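Illustration 12: cyclin-dependent kinase.
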Amino acid sequence: MADDWRPALGFTDRLTVIQSITSAYRNASPSASFTEAQSHAKRYESEAYSKAASKGEYDQLWQQAIDEVEAQHSVAPVIDSPHYSPDQGEEQYPEGTTTVGKYQHCRHHADGLLSTIYRTKNDDGLLLALKVTTPHLMGPPHDSKRELRLLKEAASSHVIPLLEAFDLPGGQLILVFPYMQSNFDELLHQDVLTPLQVRSHLRDLFTSLAHVHSLGIIHRDVKPSNILLKSPAGPAYLADFGIAWKDGDAGSEPKTRKITDVGTTCYRPPELLFGSKDYNTTLDMWAAGCVVAEAVDINHRQVFDAGPLGSELALIQSIFKTLGTPDSSVWPESARLPDWGKFEFHKYPAKPWEEILKGASSHSRDLVSQLICYESSSRLTALQVWFGLFVIN
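Figure caption equivalent — predicted structure in token form:
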């Protein structure tokens, strides 16, 4: 049957295609907004998905869309290596670069959900990353003006340095950072990090979390790709404060009515999945535990799986199948969660951490077990980890 190939094409595969077409459109037409480019990309991908009779034809159709975009705008795309190193010599400035404020020859590097990243150099030759945002087009919890305020307040040795910020006509806000060569997620899955480097980067993560938590800031999106590195040897920096929260900040929600649609699915804690709106910094500690688990797992697998569509129900099932289905004796705070008790779940037994994290050291498993636990108040704080109560091996 003609449609037999479609079920095997997961949501992540389609999203990757959309991102590829979006990037090609932005490269071909640097003046186009991210929203405009993504809108075109979704249309092209949807047409390919509906018209194709096979996976091969689908690939041909979306590749043809990229070719047509390039031909239409008559500009050769800029192809960036995601692992560009400053040590590779002077950067060239081909066609396809653009100007962002006072910065010329800016090359498109990546697209975020509501931002676009460009790479350029300053007058001293330092590589910079320019995060182009449009605050008035953002909806909660995204707020680049709040991100600017919190980055200034949180400045420290392991929080991504904000070098400057400026506005452009049309309501754009530009955040300027030193360009970081890699992120923790990339290097983990390329298996290029030594165990010593992994420990160092995790310590840097907890150092940054201890600092921002001491200021009352919840990051709300801790994950390996938000840990940026100058090189495999480090240092590591916690980045992307676009959905961060602080009590009393003008752009943050009320303390007891926080937004629950935050974070990246596989790193969300169970209290969030059951509707907690008064969560605190322990949300970040669950996510940090997931990062540690992924780092020390011999295959660097995510400890929980939300399925190809990023389903919260799939994530809940994955957590329950791993940690065991909780009851009030295991998870007392569940009784206070708005959405707890609305569903009846299969009673899964808890797996031992020796089975969950095969090949990891006992110290690593011990640390993860005291970060990834149902009762949020029982999770270690970043300061406790930072003080070395547990050794990351």
